[in-house]
Design a protein that fits this description.
Pfam families: THF_DHG_CYH (PF00763), THF_DHG_CYH_C (PF02882). Its EC number is 1.5.1.5, 3.5.4.9. InterPro entries: Aminoacid_DH-like_N_sf, NAD(P)-bd_dom_sf, THF_DH/CycHdrlase, THF_DH/CycHdrlase_cat_dom, THF_DH/CycHdrlase_NAD-bd_dom. Keywords: Amino-acid biosynthesis, Histidine biosynthesis, Hydrolase, Methionine biosynthesis, Multifunctional enzyme, NADP, One-carbon metabolism, Oxidoreductase, Purine biosynthesis. Homodimer. This protein has 2 domains: 87 residues, Rossmann fold (3-Layer(aba) Sandwich); 125 residues, NAD(P)-binding Rossmann-like Domain (Rossmann fold, 3-Layer(aba) Sandwich), CATH 3.40.50. By secondary structure, the protein is an alpha/beta fold. The chain starts with a strand and ends with a helix. The chain is built from 9 helices and 11 strands. The radius of gyration is 19 Å and the shape is globular. The longest helix has 30 residues. Helices cover 42% and strands 17% of the residues. It has a 6-stranded parallel beta sheet. Ligand LMY7XDAE binds next to helix 2, strand 4, helix 6 and helix 9.
């Protein structure tokens, strides 16, 4: 058996064709969405992701604002970049690219972002609103995973989902999305303290692997027919390696490859978030105009 490939690039292209039209509409109303990025240091992965995000902006007509800081940037340097973007009217949404170098406090940086401009959905207010079931900007990778499952009509309601990894960008928030009433999945979150990872994975209808350990998930762990979403990525001497071993394709029903799966959707949903923020601005302006 060979699994059905969940094509992140084709799905991203569908999202972008709709988004381009929404950007045109906003521009016609005098609002140009603008994405800001703060990148600290020379990590090759982070550099390539940020470059890709700005290439996406050019593709759909979103303005780009870059703040690139050296690897030895201080907290004051980072705070100044964040404060600039908070104050810049051309920036309707922005992100601080993670991970940050060790001398910088990621949580403090995320908390300093104006929650209205938080394009990543990682500000404590937005994560808190998600916990409370209120409308919020949603984290990009979890949003991409849910979209990919829906796009390929993989049943989510009632499904047993095993997530591997407890990071702030994927592992923790994805459980919050998948356990909303609108998704209704049952989620188990595994991490380095999990006693029997194979047993947890083998129970799952959907596996979301976000550990960053090359080929951690192997065919013998996976329930036949399960959907396996490979989110973790490692840069090895042989190139990029996902968390999912190649033999999983022989057992699973669906697999999202890595690269070419969730990564392009992470970028797509970043721009969806930026456009949604700009649309909210327009709605607010219209409301204020009508009220006045
Ligand atoms: N502030 C944030 N930092 C990080 C996030 C995030 O959502 N917000 N997620 C990851 C990295 N990431 C986004 O920034 C990201 C990861 C992967 C891709 C992607 O398009 N991958 C391609 C392969 C690209 C390559 O060849 O290097 C793919 O999977 O096909 C985009 C963005 C950590 N940091």
């Amino acid at each position: 058996m060979s699994a059905i490939r969940l094509d992140g690039k084709a799905t991203r292209d569908e999202i972008f064709s709709d988004l381009g039209a929404r950007v045109e509409k906003l521009r016609a109303e005098g609002i140009t969405p603008g994405l800001g990025t703060v990148l600290v240091g020379d990590d090759p992965g982070s550099r390539s992701y940020v470059k890709g995000k700005h290439a996406d902006c050019a593709r759909i007509g979103v303005e780009s604002i870059r703040k690139d800081l050296p690897a030895d940037a201080s907290t004051e340097d980072l705070n100044a970049a964040i404060d600039d973007l908070n104050a810049d009217p051309a920036c309707t949404g922005y992100i601080v690219q993670l991970p940050l170098p060790r001398q910088l406090d990621e949580n403090a940086a995320l908390e300093r972002i104006d929650p209205i401009k938080d394009a990543d959905g990682l500000h404590p207010i937005n994560l808190g609103r998600l916990v409370l079931g209120k409308e919020a900007t949603l984290p990009c990778t979890p949003r991409g995973v849910v979209h990919l499952l829906r796009r390929y009509e993989i049943p989510i309601a009632g499904a047993r989902v095993t997530v591997i990894g407890r990071g702030v960008t994927i592992g923790r928030p994805i459980g919050l999305l998948l356990t909303r009433r609108s998704e209704n999945a049952t989620v188990t979150l595994c991490h380095t303290g999990t006693r029997d990872l194979a047993a947890e994975v083998s129970r799952a209808d959907i596996v979301v692997a976000a550990a960053g350990v090359p080929h951690l998930i192997t065919a013998d762990m996976v329930k036949p027919g399960a959907a396996v979403i490979d989110v973790g990525v490692s840069r090895t001497d042989d190139g990029l390696a996902g968390d999912v071993a190649p033999d999983v394709w022989d057992v699973a029903g669906h697999v999202s490859p890595n690269p070419g799966g969730v990564g392009p959707l992470t970028r797509a949903f970043l721009l969806v978030n930026v456009v949604e923020r700009a649309e909210a601005q327009l709605a607010e302006r219209t409301r204020a105009g009508t009220a006045g």
